[in-house]
Amino acid sequence: MDTYPLGQFPVHRIGFGAMQLPGPGVMGPPRDHDEAVAVLRRAVELGVDHIDTAQFYGPDVANELIREALHPYPEGLVLASKVGALRDEQGGFVAAQRPGQLRAAVEANLRSLGVDRLEVVNLRRMDEHELAADQLIPLEDQLAEMVAMRAEGKIAGIGISTATYAQVQQAIEQAGIVCVQNAFSLVDRADADVLDLCHGANIAYVPYFPLGSAFPGMPKVTDNAAVRAVAERAGASRAQVGLAWLLARRDNVLLIPGTSRVAHLEENMRIADVALSEADMAELEGGA
Prior knowledge:
Blueprint: E1 3-6, E2 9-12, E3 16-17, H1 33-45, E4 50-52, H2 61-70, E5 78-83, E6 85-87, E7 93-95, H3 99-113, E8 118-124, H4 139-151, E9 155-161, H5 165-175, E10 179-181, H6 192-200, E11 204-205, H7 225-234, H8 238-249, H9 262-269, H10 278-287
Parallel strand pairs: 3-4, 4-5, 5-8, 8-9, 9-10, 10-11
Antiparallel strand pairs: 1-2, 6-7
Helix pairs in contact: 1-2, 1-9, 3-4, 4-5, 7-8, 7-10
């Protein structure tokens, strides 16, 4: 697989996202604990050297599974987490945007993963229209706390997630961020300007919802007619084509497809073998 720098760490462009390891709704233990552990170990065997996680996946569950499956961690494995949210008892996401909460979340990740430093921590911004007054924190203050933790050696690289173009620019200037995690896919290219900004600044871009929104009734890459046609010609699955399109779109794109099944993991890892021609790319971009 090709590599791209995630800050100071060159990583393969297909990594692994741990969000699907916990139970339904990203809450509680996995449906099959042994399979979840096997997925993580198989991912590393197949060349994954970038695992994306969060303390609020479970909560606590994803990190505990990663530690059980892989600690002591193989040399070169990059662990990326995110802070800015907690979970309530019903499984909802609760804002935790204050600088002290960001620090507490980093400390919790360090403890649960059994490390002294996280290679990357993403500041997960939340919709300001849905935040209580005490959670309306200026980005400048949040980034200052992240920079302080980097100076203390708790974080090697800072990222930002769910951020606007202006916020990404500010994060580049104030914090020297190493990655951006925003929604982007063949059927949702609204963030193309941020992707281009990151490409020009040599910053990794890690798309979430890479196959379209996870919400019911929203466009899905696998339902797209052009994707179906290209997949049939290429002898690949529709999901593989949608993800291969992302890899071909820009060389700073890093994928973190997640799953709780070994067979699905192996299918995702074969994305690197899907070669899209210029005609395929034109058909996909024109048909979405």
